[in-house]
Amino acid sequence: MPSERRLWKIVFNNFLKSFKPKEMEKPIGSDAQGNQYFETPADPQGGRRLPRRWFVPIDEEIGVPTPEWSQWLRGRRAEPPTNEEIIYNETIASMKKVNAENIAKKFEIPNSNNDGTEIQQNAKGFPDMSDKFERQPGQFKNKLK
Q1: What is the DSSP string of 28-86?
Q2: Domain residue spans in the chain?
């Protein structure tokens, strides 16, 4: 009979807990786009081991969270990102874009050879130089003699 008493005790305690106010969602922050981020803390006794995190986009079409906020939403980081961290990461990304453009300009392949003939491009946009290089070893052996 002790198990039945314990069952009724659990039911009664859950009934009393149902009258207590639930923890409300906490607004955590917002990003540059205007998306709002929220969190409900974890409740291990209620069966939720991890906090519940979500965001409300300002516009459904462009409301994509930044990578830092996305990491926080998925639980890959404990603390939400700070504005300084987001600005720092954006400056690094813009520096990488500028450096990539400079490298592309530095190593740009012209559309003509030294002899003035045009280089044909293949379907993927790369230069087609199949007549310059061997596909099979010894293919151009006879042409060199």
Answers
A1: EEE-TT--EEEEE--BGGGTB-S-EEEEE-SSTTT----HHHHHHHTTS-SSPPPHHHH
A2: 26-97
